[in-house]
Write a structure and sequence with these properties.
Blueprint: H1 6-37, H2 39-50, H3 64-107
Length: 132
Amino acid sequence: MTAADPKAQYEAKWAEYQSVMHRGAWRIGWGFFFVTVGFLPMMWLFIWIVGAGNWERTTFHAPLLMWIAVPLNLAVVVALVLQLYRRNLELDAVKRQYLTELRALKSRLPDSLPNEARPAPGPDPDAFRDDA
């Protein structure tokens, strides 16, 4: 690959873009999985603390430890979800950067025409409405 070969540059950048997007999407997906599956150990811990047969008495007579643990666990889950959201925003910024670079590389390709002939659009499906 040389600097004068725009097709090779475009293909290399496209492969890099796909790899980065694939890794980022899987990272966010696994993070979301672990956040949601993380509820299961917390529920098991609450059942173990309260006792399996004592759930009938916990609606209005919850132990003090549960009143402390619920906001703490909620804060942890909200922090983890916000971290996933931040990762998603970072991945979106990286995607926009790659797409800008790919668009610039594609414009330098010899086989790409700036004013490609596009087929005429078909009939508008919303033009005929019988509910008006």
